Amino acid sequence: MLKVSSSFSAANSAPAGATRSTAAASTALLSKTVATSRTRLRLPCSGPRTTMLASALSTSTSAPPGTSTTVLVTPSSSTAAGPAPSSVTYKYHQLEIPQTPPGIALIDITPQIRELVAQAGLQEGCVHVLSRHTTTALTINENETRLLDDVRQFLSRLAPAGDPYLHNDLHLRPAPDNWPGGWAAWAAQEPRNAHSHLLSMLLGNTLTVPVTEGKLALGTWQSVLLVELDGPRPRTVGVQLVGHAAQ
């Protein structure tokens, strides 16, 4: 059971003998405090793109043995002017992964996100992360090699690639309008990957991580993981920083 603690006592927790007026005043104070806290924590969640200050490069160590996955941080393509000087910042960046490992793989993108937070000087706010594909997902968990193998095996059993799926009946599906080369060309490149779509929907494509005192508020063993469900492919992940930056 989830327990919520507070530095204020509600009316029904007043000591024996307390008057009803004292309990009512305590309840009113608690309500006012909660309302004030909500107001202070309210932050806007979208805004114009801005250009990244620098680039970062690292190699994931969570890919299957014998493979490596490079994650690049590239500037936003937007050239629009940013917002007027303010204590609230909005910055959008895109992580680029030139090639993911085959099949199902988990890629740790936490170092790149931390670097973006540091570059932006974000002190209090949040980071929104978006997997920009229908056959990838995002999750927060421990980046431990044997656990990642367990996850890959579990997902493979949950939605086996070899099971029959309607999405994989390419002969019953029309090609997109004006596809170069017509239906045959489209069918030749279209993967039979219904299982990847299903797993993506189960795991989810977005997550938000709070930032406080300039750091991601992740637990000791938590990492932000991109889950590749239909590799190998080039992939992109959107990262938007929202909050108060150091002046």
Automatic annotation (TrEMBL):
Pfam families xref list: YjbQ (PF01894)
SUPFAM superfamilies for this protein: YjbQ-like (SSF111038)
Organism domain of life: Eukaryota
Region (Disordered): 56-85
InterPro entries for the chain: UPF0047_YjbQ-like, YjbQ-like_sf
Name of the protein this chain belongs to: Secondary thiamine-phosphate synthase enzyme
Organism of provenance: Volvox reticuliferus
